[in-house]
Specification:
Number of helices: 13
Structural class: alpha+beta
InterPro entries: BaiN-like, BaiN-like_dom_sf, FAD/NAD-bd_sf, RsdA/BaiN/AoA(So)-like_dom, RsdA/BaiN/AoA(So)_Rossmann
Pfam family, one: HI0933_like
Cofactor: FAD
CATH architecture of the largest domain: 3-Layer(bba) Sandwich
Organism: Sphingorhabdus contaminans
Oligomer: single chain
Keywords: FAD, Flavoprotein
CATH superfamily of the largest domain: FAD/NAD(P)-binding domain
CATH class of the largest domain: Alpha Beta
Number of domains: 2
Length: 402
């Protein structure tokens, strides 16, 4: 139980990054206080992966960091990811006897419950005592004041006061506000003169309007597609919803999207160029609708055929017209009118600028003893365990220097 006093470090936020930072520091003999306004630790961990927590991705490595993490500095994440790898976290999971499985594309999930991951992290915090350290927690504890004076950070929370030479901002971003998420990290960072890269919802469904509203009638229909935004492609499932587009391929693309930008969907990514002309020769009495129905749900095939302009058998179509239909089906243009915002965003892109942070320790360059980790920082991973691995790695990086 936390009480007023002096600590070696104070961590604001008991999410994945904050807990990892706390246990790392505690097991180095540090006396740490973790403060969170929530009722308990790891609230986002508990709801992640459908309650089974996609706790890492075997491909979330420093070698892939530049491609699979978005940041104004695409190299920034490499250092932390290189020093604490997916294998390191898997080793901890195995040591605690947590059964897990790989789903697709390197994504690892608990066989049981996400609660096992939170319990593991809390148990590791308790293990600090073996190393002469201690991790105290304060929940239901909104922070009302943060100041730095005489080389110490002075925190006021729930009428209590605590001081430490090191302060860690690990309060995440504003995604999923129903979980209590806010932009507190950015306000605090600005207070200490740090720059903020404009935050925006990421890994988030698109909303459709205008001519694309027609597709909203297909709510619940999914398809294996190749989604494109600029030169970035993702081959996974897309889901049509009553508001627009969702599913893994869409969530991935959303992190790269800017308002007003078109996206392209290849509804038949396995079809080779010329497939419609070949079908015309082999089965001249086929129609566009029947050709699409062979690969897509009937409802989706109906709307695509209608938009293309179905007109009789393929035998009645010129090769040029079939080429045009192929091009459209392989890069169907949508112009989302927005996203479903932070309420449905899995993470926040942007955040505290990495320009002001040390890659090695996550400490700010201009304010001694101030560290920033996890989602609060301008590092955003792909869907599928990448953001948890960044939370673990950045937490360990900072915790080692507290």
């Amino acid at each position: 139980m936390a009480k007023s006093g002096n600590y070696d470090a104070i961590i604001l936020g008991a999410g994945g990054a904050g807990l990892m930072c706390a246990l790392t520091a505690g097991q180095q003999g540090r006396h740490v206080l973790v403060i969170d306004h929530a009722s308990g630790p790891g609230k986002k961990i508990l709801i992640s992966g459908g309650g089974r927590c996609n706790f890492t991705n075997v491909n979330a490595t420093s070698a892939n960091a530049q491609e699979r993490y978005l940041s104004a500095n695409p190299h920034f994440a490499k250092s932390a990811l290189g020093r604490f790898t997916p294998s390191d976290f898997i080793e901890m999971v195995q040591a605690h006897g947590i059964a897990y499985h790989e789903k697709t594309l390197g994504q690892l999930f608990c066989d049981g419950s996400a609660r096992q991951i939170v319990e593991m992290l809390m148990a590791e915090c308790d293990r600090s005592a073996q190393y002469g350290g201690r991790v105290d927690f304060a929940f239901h504890a909104p922070v009302s004041d943060v100041r730095r004076a005489d080389g110490l950070y002075h925190i006021v929370y729930n009428g209590l006061k605590a001081s430490a030479p090191a302060l860690v901002i690990a309060t995440g971003g504003p995604s999923i506000p129903k979980m209590g998420a806010t932009g507190f990290a950015y306000d605090l960072a600005r207070q200490f003169g740090l720059k903020i890269v404009e935050p925006r919802p990421a890994l988030v469904p698109f909303t459709l309007g205008g001519d694309d509203v027609l597709f909203r009638e297909l709510s619940g229909v999914s398809a294996d597609v190749d989604a494109r935004c600029g030169k970035v492609h993702f081959r996974e499932a897309a889901l049509l919803t009553h508001k627009g587009l969702s599913g893994p391929a869409i969530l991935q693309i959303s992190s790269y999207w800017r308002h007003g930008q078109p996206i392209g969907i290849n509804f038949l990514p396995d079809r080779k160029s010329g497939w419609l002309r070949e079908l015309k020769r082999e089965k001249p009495r086929s129609t566009i609708r029947s050709a699409l129905s062979a690969a897509l749900s009937a409802r989706l095939a109906d709307i695509l055929a209608e938009r293309i302009g179905e007109g009789g058998n393929l035998a009645d179509w010129s090769d040029k017209r079939l080429e045009e239909a192929e091009r459209l089906l392989s890069d169907w243009p949508f112009v989302p009118n927005g996203t479903e915002g932070y309420a449905k965003a899995e993470v926040t892109a942007g955040g505290i600028s990495t320009d002001g942070l040390s890659q090695k320790s996550m400490e700010t360059r201009t304010v001694p003893g101030l560290f920033c980790i996890g989602e609060a920082v301008d590092v955003t991973g792909w869907l599928g365990g990448y953001n948890f691995q960044w939370a673990w790695a950045s937490g360990v990086a900072a915790g080692a220097f507290l």
